[in-house]
Amino acid sequence: MSLDGVGAVNGTGSGGSARAVARTVFVYGPLSRSEVARRLGLSPASLTRLARPLIEQGLLVEDGAIADPGHGRIMRPLDIAPDLRFIGVKITVATVHGVLTDARANVLTLVDAPLDDTTPDSVLTAIVAVVGELAAAADGARVHSIGVSLGGHTDDNATVVVSRSLGWRDVPLGSRVAERTGLPVVVENDVTAITVAQHLFSAARDSERFALVTVGVGVGCGLVINGDVVRQLDPASPSPSMLVLNPSGPTVPEGPRGSALAYLSSANIAMAASAATGRLLTFEQTIAAARADDPAVLGVVRESASYLGRFIASIATINYVTEFLLSGEGVEIAEIGEDAMLAAVAESRPAWGAPLHIDITPTVMADWARGAAAIAIRSLI
Predict the structure, then answer these.
(1) Whether the predicted pLDDT of 68 surpasses 70
(2) Is the pLDDT of residue 67 over 60?
(3) What sign for the dihedral angle of Cα 322, 242, 251, 245?
C-alpha cells in the first residue's frame, strides 16, 4: 500500500495530490467528499479521480450513508480503513516500549521489553520481540509499517547517525528491523516524532506554528513552522538543551555551564535537591517532597521552573512562536512552580510582546511510542 507515483492534478501542486486527500481524511475525517474538495480546492471530478486509487488500495473507505446536514442529500463520507494498524517503538537505555495504534495514532495495545544492554544486536532482538507481540495483538488487522524513535539523529529515516545515550554511531537500524519483521520501517528522533503526533493528532493539528518543549531525562524542543515539522539536519548542531540560561550556573558533563540541561533534566534537578537537603533523592522523591512543601526542595523545583520559563521565552523569541505545548516526564516542575515559570516568561520578554499560550500536557512513555507510530503514519500520508 503506497501513494508513491500518484502525482498532482492540473498543476495544483501538493494540495491536489492523492497524498493530500489521504492526509486530510486521516487527520480530519470522516469527511464528506464536498468537504474534502473544499479544503483542498478541488473540483468534484478531480477529487473522485484522486480518491479512487485510495479506496482501491484499501487505504480509505466510504463510510455508511448519512444525510448531508446542509443540503439533505444522502452522502457517504470518506474515512480511514478501520482495519489499518501501525506499530510505534520508543527506545530508551533501559527498555523498548511498543504500541499498536490505529491510523489516527490511538493506542490499542502496549508491550514493553527490558534491555540487558544497549548494543544494537540486543536492542534489535527486543524490538523484534515487541513487534511480534503487537502484530499478534492486531488480530488479523493489517499492520502497515513500524516507526522507531530514540534520542539521537537520523539523516535518512533509516540510519542512526549518532545516539549518545545509546552509544551508537552509524547503525542501519531501519534496514535491520525491516529485514527481521518484513515491514517498512521509519526511524526518527524521539522529540521530532512526538512533535509529529501532536501536529497531526492533537488539538494542535490546526496550528501552523508552535513549539513542543519536553523536560525529563533530557530537554527537547520540537518546532512546527508554517505547518511543517522542523528536523535537525546536522548531527553536530547542538540541541536547544545546550542553550545557556545562566553563564554562572551549574556545570554538567554534557554541555556548557548554566545550560537548559543543567537546570531542567530530571537527574540534575534531583542532584540539586539532594545537595539542598543533604540526603540522596531521586527525581520522583524530589517531586513528592516539593508537593509536600519541603522548603528546601520546593525552592529547587521553583528555581528550575523559573529557568524553564526563561527557556520557553528564548525559544519564543528566536523562532517567532507564541503557542507552546509543555510535555515530558519532568513536566511536574511546571505544575508545581507554574507561577515562577510564568513570571520568568514575563520578565524575559518585552511588555509589548505577544502573550505566550502554554499548555501543560503530562506525558507517559506510551506517548513517546505513540509518536513513533505517528511517524510511520506520516510516511504513508
Answers:
(1) no
(2) no
(3) negative
Which alpha helices (H) appear in the chain, and where do they start and end? 18-28, 33-40, 44-56, 120-137, 173-181, 190-201, 260-264, 266-277, 283-291, 295-319, 332-336, 338-347, 365-380
Say which CATH superfamily domain 84-198+367-380 falls into.
Answer: ATPase, nucleotide binding domain (3.30.420.40)
Residue-by-residue DSSP string for 27-56: HH-SB-HHHHHHHHT--HHHHHHHHHHHHH
Q: What is the DSSP letter of 171?
A: E
The residues with which 187 forms a beta bridge, in sequence order, are: 148
Q: Which three cell numbers stand for residue 53?
A: 486509487
pLDDT of residue 5: 47
Domain boundaries, the chain: 13-80, 84-198+367-380, 207-362
Q: How many CB atoms lie within 10 A of CB 234?
A: 9
Predicted TM-score of the model (pTM): 0.88
**Cβ proximity of 104 and 84 under 8 Å:** no
Give the C-alpha separation, 175 to 156, whole Å.
Answer: 11
Which strand ranges, in their side-by-side order, compose the sheet holding 153-154? 153-154, 160-163, 168-171
- The reply to whether 207-362 shares the fold of 84-198+367-380 is yes
Homologous superfamily in CATH for domain 207-362: ATPase, nucleotide binding domain (3.30.420.40)
Give yes or no for residue 27 having a pLDDT over 70.
Answer: yes
